[in-house]
Design goal:
heterodimer; A: 5-stranded parallel beta sheet; 5 helices; 5 strands; B: alpha/beta; 5-stranded parallel beta sheet; 6 helices
Amino acid sequence: MRSSKPILLVEDDNVDATTVRRALKDLNVPNSIIHQLDGEDALEYLRSGDNKRPCVILLDLNMPRMNGIDFLKIIKNDDELKQIPVIVMTTSKDERDKMDSFERSVAGYIIKSPDYKKFMESLKILNLYWTLSELPYPGA
Amino acid sequence: MRDCRPILLLEDDTVDAMTVKRALKELHVLNPLVRVANGEEALVYLKDESKEKPCVILLDLNMPKMNGIEFLKIAKADEKLKRIPAIVLTTSKDDQDRLKTFQLSIAGFVVKPVDYIKFVEAMRIVNLYWTLSELPNSEQESTNEKLQTHTAGGR
């Protein structure tokens, strides 16, 4: 990533979250990972003034309490939070989910591969892109 | 890119536009490149129903008539256009430009390297990412539009 700020991972499945951590570690991505279990927890994290703003948000869609689309609706209407790039990371190939996400101007929609090597390759490309691209909050 | 729809490039400088074209060709990116010189021309293109909507928009910021930020304000307020990922491609390292464009939910902000080899590498990464990522179907109706059609339609 271009900044050393944490990556916010919103994912209800602990096994999937561990896979993301492992892949980022294997790719030597030094950013810390903040894992929240659903949209509500993620919002709570983002709205607590003491917490570091993430450089990007990796967002699952199907989650209990507050799912990914509902989370997007809220943060993209929040003047403080809407500048953070949100990348959807899901197993859903549903056209409706894609449309709902891009209508909320997500900065990428990646279908998670069940194969670890392929999954790692997609995170590698994601990391390359967000190292090339500037991010809204510069510095550490 | 993930599909073969055109790439819309907003760039007032002809030499810079040619460099983008050349880099994409070198990377074997097959999508046609539609180049317009400013935001106003881009809106005319995007609102023309006879023209195919682009898969992504690459935009410069400093342009005459309508600049990149003014264009983004309009495109991101439009139900149909706001879904198209917009990636800023600029020489501006201005903090305000970066913040303002991220506020308008851009999908990337790439500072153009002056060196051609480095520029090709940047475009390679942009192409890799938008080949990995799904893209919105610009022809599909949103839920609201669909509801209206179904109510007005009937058999």
